[in-house]
Amino acid sequence: MLKVASYNIHKAIGTDRRRNPGRTIEVLNELDADIITLQEADRRFGARAAAIPSLMLEQYSDYRAIPLDVQTDSMGWHGNAILVRKSARVMAQDILHIPYLEPRGAVMAQIAVNGFDLSIFGMHLDLSGLWRRRQAAAIVKLAKQHEEERPTILMGDLNEWSASGGCLKDFGRSYNFVDCGRSFHSRGAIARLDRIMHCDQLEAIAGGVHESASARKASDHLPVWAQFVGA
Predict the structure, then answer these.
(1) What span, in angstroms and rounded, lies between the C-alpha atoms of 38 and 27?
(2) Three-class SS state of 207
(3) Where does the pLDDT of residue 170 fall: very low under 50, low under 70, confident under 90, or very high at 90 and above?
């Protein structure tokens, strides 16, 4: 069995408006997923340093960030990062340039973990519906190329408020959505902004929103998770 999760950590700033990376790590450990995609994993200004210092992540969790070799102090690319268990094997990783109105990007990695060999895509899409659809089309095109070699999972904050329209239609033509639930706002979830999608080579057997006391304080988003077996 494989467990994955997606989490917009809001730069490790909680609902109390305090930056507390230790609290974010606590939520990551609670999730206990094999692979976690993060959004807003870097600070917004200056050198865009990682919101979770790498030494803290190494000392207090079983995770490591896949290096993207883009910015020296950052964990991700435009805030998108992929965490894997320390025992996982990473065969390849890359940053994805997608169309944007405001600076946006996506990331991907080929990962072997827990008996699975996968392509993982992480993303944080635009606030504009038109640009979200353009970004979805670009990501799907790239993901379908990788799907020929190994099963594919796409995760992230899609910023899509509609129940079934917009970029959900674009992703839905090629991928299946896991029914995780409402993840935003963490103090009272009203929207399914955070999504997990997968190809037909995988079967989702469970999915949900992680609603611990720590998660309700650590970010304005709650993490979403899914469990898979081979189809």
Answers:
(1) 12
(2) strand
(3) very high
Handedness of CA 113, 219, 180, 147 (dihedral sign): negative
**H or E, element range at 60:** helix 54-60
Helix runs in 161-225, H state only: 167-172, 213-218
User: What is the secondary structure of 129-146 as a DSSP string?
Assistant: HHHHHHHHHHHHHHHHHH
Does residue 187 register a pLDDT over 90?
A: yes
Residues in the chain, how many?
Answer: 231
- Rounded CA-CA distance 226/231 in Å is 15
Q: Where are the beta strands (DSSP E) in the chain?
A: 2-8, 35-39, 63-65, 81-85, 89-96, 106-113, 116-124, 152-157, 176-177, 194-198, 202-209, 224-230
